[in-house]
Amino acid sequence: MEIPVYLFTGFLESGKTQFIQGTLEDKKFDPNPRTLLLMCEEGIEEYNPDLFVGKNVYMEKIESIEELTTAKMVELAKNYKIQRVLVEYNGMWSLNELYNNMPENWMIYQEIFFANSENFINYNANMRQLTVDKLQSCELIALNRVTDKTNKDEIHKIIRGINRRTDIIYEYLNGEIEYDETVDPLPFDINSPVITVEDKDFALWYRDLMEEEAKYEGKTVKFKGLVARADELGPNTILIGRHIMTCCEADIAFKPIVCEAESPIFMNNKSWQTVVVRIAIEKHKLYKSKAPVLKLISFTPAEAPEKEVATFY
User: Fold this and answer.
1) How far apart are CA 139 and CA 225, in angstroms?
2) Span(s) in the chain for CATH 3.40.50.300
3) In the CATH hierarchy, which top-level class contains the domain 195-310?
4) In the chain, where does the domain assigned CATH 2.40.50.140 lie?
5) What SS3 string covers the chain?
6) What is the pLDDT of residues 169-213, one digit of tens each?
7) What's this model's pTM, rounded to 2 decimal places?
8) Which residue from 219, 268, 216, 262 is spatially nearest to 237, judged by alpha carbons?
9) Which residues pair with 272 in a beta bridge?
10) pLDDT in tens, 46-72
């Protein structure tokens, strides 16, 4: 049986406990399923189980990341015969520890990130890797303690640099809720006969291409990239891309795209080239499923960009 998991993330005192308490008090949140509440951190706020609408809520503390094992979660599921899981996750733990250890029949149904708007920007500056870890997969970001002085433009920029699809809401001190409806135009013209991607915009274009590949099918694009060659690809195929940094130097990785031509491609390995390509969405042996494949139209040798590592800022 598939067990739905509702995952609540955020740093200490971000409002997770209060939200979960309110959820379990709400009659609209089906009170009947046997529910396991995993508490992975302990803050000032405490739960009041007496106010839960359903009485089938079983609370378990996870004191350390070492306890968050598959065996432990399977054991709890079996002991309580659970049908649903709520997780208040520790903001200092990597989400991969949870994702990699969840039992196979546990499925994330909803993931919400909570943040205190007063210190969100500082958290991002000082704990960037942990912030990215929590933001990149969530469906909703709820920022509380918002005032007229809150720098929502900067907060929006940080979030969109990590996650373009998540919804963003702001909760003011008086309880008023405001949805972030800012439209983020791409820094290049998607409808141009030739989409020209500037060096500084490569990371944004690459992510948009990989997330919304269908809208690029058949489009012609011009960009600068680093060539990678491999004998097994044959003379008519190269990989071209750039190193991209998402949050910090530790996560810099080369992000290549397959590029093909009807005849041998005479580009040196590790050379910088400005290419004009047509994008096709199709299968390739290097991909697990259909993905962007670049059809080479032309190329010219190029100088390395001023910043060789592409970023989202």
Assistant:
1) 32
2) 3-179
3) mainly beta
4) 195-310
5) CCEEEEEEEECCCCCHHHHHHHHHHCCCCCCCCCEEEEECCCCCCCCCHHHCCCCCEEEEECCCHHHCCHHHHHHHHHHHCCCEEEEECCCCCCHHHHHHHCCCCEEEEEEEEEEECCCHHHHHHHCHHHHHHHHCCCCEEEEEEECCCCCHHHHHHHHHHHCCCCEEEEEECCCCEEECCCCCCCCCCCCCCCEECCHHHHHHHHHHHHHCHHHHCCCEEEEEEEEECCHHHCCCEEEEEEEECCCCHHHCEEEEEEEECCCCCCCCCCCEEEEEEEEEEECCCCCCCCEEEEEEEEEEECCCCCCCEECCC
6) 999 999 999 999 988 888 899 999 999 999 999 999 999 999 999
7) 0.73
8) 262
9) 226
10) 999 999 998 899 999 999 999 999 999
The strand pair at 140-146 and 167-172 is best described as parallel
Please tell me the distance from the alpha carbon of residue 176 to that of residue 191, in angstroms, as a whole number. 39
Number of residues written out for the chain: 313
CATH architecture of 3-179: 3-Layer(aba) Sandwich (3.40)
Q: Position of tokens 């800022």?
A: 313
Q: Which two tokens stand for residue 299?
A: 């190329």
Residue owning tokens 């000082």: 126
